[in-house]
Write a structure and sequence with these properties.
The chain is of the alpha+beta class and 382 residues long. It has 2 domains: 4-140, Aminopeptidase, CATH 3.40.630.30; 142-184 and 227-340, Aminopeptidase (3-Layer(aba) Sandwich), CATH 3.40.630. It has 10 helices and 16 strands. Strands 1, 2, 3, 4, 5, 6, 10 and 16 form an 8-stranded mixed beta sheet that branches.
């Protein structure tokens, strides 16, 4: 079977949307405005035609689709560098064409364009292919959880924990004043990110470079986005969060998407107590104004663990039912439904410093992984 990879063109939308709906179902990404936003990204040449999503064609029929988000990545070589890269978020091949050579064709086309390629939410087959192709992996993203309201949190646990234990824990989390959201300022957020992650002319962490362009694209330009910014950057630490409904239930979840310390050493060994206070105060506000009963945060490494612990967040084990008091449901639409594994794989230049190889940092916010709808969300896995 002869096939070729071509860049997506606007005239392809009707046929592509039919193909995606047939194989995925009626998901939000089929909204044209959300599709265009996601695959535009925020890199220097993000809108260049060569960065458009790729379609695998054969005899006028679509056999596969690869969607990537162009962006900028910070990597530590001999000096601190910022380079273009792409995040693979959607990879789908027709069942009759799901042969390794077609997946290879789509991946090679992406990898050759930039020194950094990221792959999120990889299925088992795609994960094995990434490893074979020399990608590094952090495995499953870590998840930190905390109760804001003991009784509401208990209701959303996979295993039933003791109420008294949750009540004492929630008291620690909410024993603070509330902090109302602030107006998002992309330039200020970009400045805070630089001060937080560049220390003594070296990157403290590697990964997505969150410049002012990133904040504008990711949160202010996103169709249907309803995000909350807390803090006063660049003068204080800051977080970005959203309130997520629980299908058919009253209590809501505060999902922490971005956590940025003011002190760069918080990424290594120190506790940023000011940042911990911002997290707790945001939780208090979310409980009072949105009836949030729990909060969570997904991240690929434990670098911020001292600060997260200070805020009352604790790492959830896997499987989640192992410790009842940490068994907050992974998916809420609907509650207790299976959740796709959040993972990350990356390929970077061989010159990247090994001394910070363990400091690649990814969160649920990247690649629009906070987009959740229902059980069919599993099919968004690449």
């Amino acid at each position: 079977m002869r096939a070729e990879v071509r860049s997506f063109l606007p005239v392809d939308w009707m046929e592509l949307s039919i193909y995606l709906k047939e194989h995925w179902g009626d998901l939000p990404i089929l909204d044209r405005s959300l599709f265009n936003w996601r695959f535009t990204g925020f890199g220097e040449e993000a809108q260049a035609p060569r960065f458009a999503p790729k379609i695998l064609w054969s005899n006028g029929e679509i056999l596969g689709f690869l969607g990537t988000i162009p962006g900028r990545y910070q990597v530590q070589m001999e000096t601190a560098q910022i380079t273009d890269g792409e995040a693979i978020t959607l990879l789908l091949a027709h069942p009759q064409a799901y042969l390794k050579e077609y997946e290879e064709a789509l991946l090679v086309e992406t990898e050759r364009r930039h020194p950094v390629t990221i792959c999120f939410r990889a299925s088992r087959d795609s994960a094995e292919n990434c490893i074979d192709r020399g990608y590094s992996s952090c495995g499953r993203l870590l998840r930190y959880v905390a109760p804001i309201d003991a009784s509401g949190y208990q209701e959303y646990c996979v295993s039933t924990p003791e109420y008294e234990q949750l009540e004492a824990w929630a008291q620690v989390v909410t024993d603070d004043d509330e902090l109302a959201p602030s107006n998002p300022e992309p330039i200020a957020m970009g400045k805070l990110w630089m001060e937080s992650t560049l220390h003594e002319d070296k990157w403290v962490i590697q990964g997505l470079h969150r410049s002012s362009r990133y904040w504008q694209w990711r949160y202010l330009d996103r169709p249907g986005g309803d995000y909350l910014f807390f803090g006063n950057p660049p003068h204080t630490p800051a977080i970005v969060a959203k309130v997520e409904d629980v299908f058919g239930r009253p209590g809501k979840i505060l999902r922490l998407l971005e956590i940025i310390p003011k002190n760069p050493l918080a990424w290594t060994i120190e506790t940023d107590e000011e940042l911990a206070a911002v997290i707790r105060q945001a939780a208090v506000w979310a409980h009072r104004h949105h009836d949030c009963v729990a909060m969570d945060y997904h991240v690929s490494s434990s670098l911020l663990m001292p600060t997260l612990a200070c805020a009352g967040l604790r790492e959830q084990p896997y499987p989640v039912a192992r410790k009842p008091y940490l068994s907050l449901a992974e998916n809420f639409k609907p509650l207790f439904s299976p959740s796709p594994e959040l993972n990350a794989f990356w390929k970077s230049p061989s010159e990247v410093s090994d001394t910070v190889s363990h400091r690649w940092c990814f969160t649920r916010a990247e690649a629009d992984m906070d987009l959740t709808t229902s059980l069919v969300d599993e099919m968004l896995s690449v």
